[in-house]
Amino acid sequence: MSYGPPSGPRDGRTRAYPVPGPPNTYDRQDRGGYGRRDQGGYGQRDQGGYRQPPPHDGGGVGLAEQPRAPRRRRRWGRIVLIVLLVLFLLVAAAFIYLETAINRVSALGDYPGRPAAGAGTNWLIVGSDSRAGLNVEDQERLSTGDAAGQRTDTMILLHIPDNSQKPTMVSLLRDSYVDIPGKGKNKLNAAYAFGGPKLLAQTVETATGLRLDHYIEIGFGGFANIVDAVGGVDVCLDKPMNDPLAGINLPAGCQTLDGANSLGYVRSRHTSAGSDLDRVVHQRQFVGALMKKATSFGTVINPFRLVPLIADIPDAITLDSGDHLWNLPALGSAMSGASSGSTITTTVPFSGNKSVPKIGSVILWNDTKAKTLFDALRTDGAVPDSVIVAPSGS
């Protein structure tokens, strides 16, 4: 009795079906069965790759489910690494350039009777009015005149303590009447004219009893170029300043000074009754503001300011032969404090002035107060308020 069509093929023949499993050589090569290449079986490569993935039992992760490597994260990591490497090479190149290109002079050295080293670190900062390197156009633009020889209008003793005391900037008045080794008594700035940086440094050490550790000198042209490189320096004037000899005519109020006006501002000594006393105050304030601007974040990240600044530094400053580039950050930090109040600023205490034949008007130090001031610096002690000279008119 038949209940339906047979389950096999209608022609009555029995057909074999491939059993899942690894293909054998006989099927692939002779019968065109499972895995045959010319009929599209498993493993076919002629028509675009595998048509069917191999079966799996679900016990693990299939090929399509394997996690891919985070290529984008690795790519960004390489980019950051390359940028950091480039920045490091640029900083290293700038450091090597400055360290080898900065002018140096033998300013500090031993001699009989030289003061012993004290606490902290002492810098002598000198502003030279040498016209060397300035052509006629530069002299006219900066109103420097054409005086020959070497002189200094600015001398500042900067003490950086090793303890928690504030750094101290002491202006040494150019007309101070002091002993110059081998030359007798004369104005302090005459030491620079007689024997350059070396004799000036020895004279300062002899007069103050402090051993100098570092020396830095800034020239006329270099000073103006640095100011221009950082985009000028902001100052606020209580009253107008008109000094034809310094080449300035500045209105009252806050303003940004370029290199030429900045040089005239720190050189001017004919706009007030205080003359030299007011000038040294301007010098300390301006130098502090300049250092703050030069080391500011806005200057460091701006290539249009940083690159000219780096290019101008070697021609602008002169260091002692024993000084190096890594000595400058502490100097810059202490000097920038003059504009923020974190550095004490004063003039060496004085008692009056007198006229000396063949020398002219000189300033006499108050020996007692001056000794108290320099003793405090030698021991990293607190500077008494009684020896701090306030600006004239305050």
Automatic annotation (TrEMBL):
Annotated InterPro entries: LytR/CpsA/Psr_CW_biosynth, LytR_CpsA_psr
Ranges of biased composition (kind: Basic and acidic residues): 27-39
Residue spans crossing the bilayer: 76-98
Record's signal peptide: none
Region (Disordered): 1-69
Keywords recorded for this protein, A-Z: Membrane, Transmembrane, Transmembrane helix
Gene3D superfamilies: LCP protein (3.40.630.190)
All copies of domain Cell envelope-related transcriptional attenuator, residue ranges: 151-295
A UniProt-annotated Pfam family: LytR_cpsA_psr
Top-level taxon: Bacteria
Protein family (similarity comment): Belongs to the LytR/CpsA/Psr (LCP) family.
Official protein name in the record: LytR family transcriptional attenuator
Organism (species): Actinocrispum wychmicini
